[in-house]
Design goal:
Layout lengths: L41 E4 L8 E5 L3 E3 L5 E3 L3 E6 L2 E2 L5 E3 L6 E9 L2 E14 L6 E4 L5 E3 L1
Parallel strand pairs: 2-9
Antiparallel strand pairs: 1-4, 3-7, 5-6, 5-8, 8-9, 9-10, 10-11
Length: about 140
Amino acid sequence: YPSFPSPYPTFPSPYPTFPGPHPAFPGPYSTFPSPYPTFPAVRPWLDDAGCPRQQNWTEGQEGTLECRAGGKPEPRVRCSKDGNSLAAGVARPVHRSHAGTYLCQASNALGTAERNVTVEVLCESGASGLLEFWGSRGYWDSW
């Protein structure tokens, strides 16, 4: 006998597939990532616990710009000062040029949250070992 196609034709579904099994919908599921966020989806946010507005570093030591965001899907965090980006959460040797105000932005598919973070750098000056403070205003302040 010749082979015949299935009695029911198959067509691609016009409906999006969402990841993960659900007891009411046993499958099958697409293995491709969905362009839709998984639920529950939440806009990004920046708060004092994850992204403090004021951070103090010491010149010559390691410093880390602390800025973590919440949201779902997990937001991407970018921080910049004067057009120069600085990766949040990465330790680096501190220099007085790091002092200033950074604009940190957390973004996901649902939106963007912004926060200004001020970094002040404690510096050692000259021969006496006197500590001075390089403030966010861009000049030396004696301590």
